[in-house]
TrEMBL record:
A single cellular component GO annotation: endoplasmic reticulum
Main location class: endoplasmic reticulum
Keyword Endoplasmic reticulum in record: yes
Chain coiled-coil ranges: none
Lineage: Eukaryota, Fungi, Dikarya, Ascomycota, Pezizomycotina
Subcellular location: Endoplasmic reticulum; Membrane; Mitochondrion
UniProt KW keywords: Endoplasmic reticulum, Membrane, Mitochondrion
Name under which the protein is recorded: DUF676 domain-containing protein
Length: 326
């Protein structure tokens, strides 16, 4: 994927029949369903879903050269259900832009399959799965806590069979709030009395934490976005001035024996990141003054001064530190 293609919207495509065996077949079926030529569609990954309990199907990640009018919506619509033409079982394809839950990027059991995503192609034999959750700040009516998000991650891991004896070792790559969610999930799993949950954590091999605010972050600009909203408490929990949530979580996390038996690396940025400001028209954009939002001490969970061998400095800002270009 070229650097310029990152500016184009990426869709997740679900509900593909299990008979679809190649990105070309997926593009053809989606093109027929939307009435588009297949060469208007690029399929970057194709894999079986991770849910062990639902019907067998496949999912893909796609981009359009020109987004169809039916998908280029100015409203808040983020998911479209499109009936497959002449389907004997009334099957539908589901396109979305939220990527909530598990998105599998590649299958490892098919020797000749290589997804076009950079990580599966660079590390063959590794199944790569994205996990997405609702992190909307502006105009949000969600009062979920970080612990709630972590609990749903655990549920998704169980649904995907990550607790089964056949499950392979797990390595997490977590960015920013995602790392706090992961730490909370690990603490929950370690303290669970449910054997099927503990079996997930036994498969943990390690993690790379990208700019995770383990000791809090500067988030006054975020507070301006959520003041008075249901999600205000979630943002407050990330404050570097908070003496409760992030620091208590850090103590609980570092007190787990599993944390000291696996390999965890901590990456931090060495460039200031732009902040978000409100425009005169009421919208928000990243045009505010640059600032150090998460300092190296917080991003490395103390390791910047105790064990530098576990730290990775990245000369990028917050958003660009996890974007990899060929």
């Amino acid at each position: 994927m070229t650097a310029s293609s990152w500016t184009r919207k990426v869709f997740r495509l679900r509900g593909l029949p299990s008979s679809i065996s190649s990105p070309k077949d997926a593009a053809r079926l989606l093109g027929e369903t939307l009435g588009l030529p297949p060469d208007n569609i690029t399929v970057y990954s194709l894999a079986k879903t991770s849910n062990q309990w639902g019907p067998m199907s496949k999912m893909a990640t796609v981009q359009f050269k020109d987004i169809p009018p039916t998908l280029d919506s100015e409203t808040s619509i983020t998911e479209w259900r499109i009936p497959i033409r002449e389907s004997p079982h009334n099957e539908v394809l589901i396109l979305d832009t939220q990527f909530e839950g598990m998105t599998v990027l590649n299958d490892v059991e098919t020797a000749n399959h290589r997804a076009e995503d950079e990580l599966p192609r660079s590390v063959p034999g590794v199944r790569t799965v994205l996990y997405g959750y609702d992190s909307q700040l502006i105009d949000s009516n969600s009062f979920q806590s970080i612990g709630d998000i972590a609990a749903r991650l655990i549920w998704n891991l169980k649904s995907g069979g990550w607790n089964l004896p056949s499950s392979r070792p797990i390595i997490f790559l977590a960015h920013s709030l995602g790392g706090i969610v992961l730490k909370d999930a690990i603490v929950q799993m370690a303290n669970s009395t449910d054997k099927s949950v503990k079996d997930i954590i036994r498969n943990l091999l390690g993690a790379i934490m990208f700019r995770v605010p383990s000791l809090g972050m500067e988030q006054s600009y975020l507070m301006a976005m959520v003041e008075g909203q249901a999600n205000e408490t979630l943002v407050q929990d990330l404050s570097r001035n908070s003496n409760y949530y992030v620091r208590q979580l850090d103590l609980a996390f570092n007190g787990l024996s599993i944390v000291h038996s696996v390999k965890i690396l901590w990456a931090y940025v060495t460039r200031e990141s732009p902040t978000i400001v409100k425009r005169p028209d009421g919208d928000w954009n990243k045009k505010g003054p640059s600032a150090v939002l998460v300092n190296p001490e917080s991003a490395t969970c103390h390791c910047s001064r105790t064990d530098k061998s576990l730290t990775i400095p990245i000369n990028k800002d917050h958003s660009n530190m996890v974007k990899f270009f060929p």
